[in-house]
Amino acid sequence: MLKRQKKKRPVARRRRIARKNVNPWKHVVKAELANFELVKAGSSLRLEIFSNDEKIGELEVGRGSLYWYGRNRKTRERVDWSHFAEMMDKLAYGK
Q1: Range list of H helices, 40-80
Q2: Model pLDDT for residues 49-68, shown as the tens digit of each residue
Q3: Within a domain: residue 64?
Q4: Which residues of 63-85 are buried (b: 16+ CB within 10 A; e: fewer)?
Q5: Residue 84 sits in which domain range?
Q6: Is residue 18 part of a domain?
Q7: Which of 14, 25, 41, 92 has the fewest CB atoms within 10 Å, counting from its CB?
Q8: What predicted TM-score, i.e. pTM, was given to this entire model?
Q9: Looking only at Cα atoms, what is the longest distance across the chain?
Q10: Domain count of the chain?
Q11: Interstrand relation of 27-33 and 77-80 (parallel, antiparallel or unpaired)
């Protein structure tokens, strides 16, 4: 008995769509440390936060409190550590 041979179909190739240079991460944080040890007054850690290459704001972390600068704000908002802990508890645990 002779077996029939199946015809091979040509394989359709998918075209790759050229993507723009897109950042694979949604958020990027750049850090600047004024003093390695945060023991002196005036020493702080400054974080610049970006979302899709747009600056969201700046967070300055010091010994006594932290400061938030909004996207294009000139003034900063001071939050002490105990208030920050309360805000995070409400956000994380709903208390």
Answers
A1: none
A2: 999 888 999 999 888 889 99
A3: yes
A4: eeebbebeeeeeeeeebeeeeee
A5: 27-93
A6: no
A7: 14
A8: 0.62
A9: 94
A10: 1
A11: unpaired
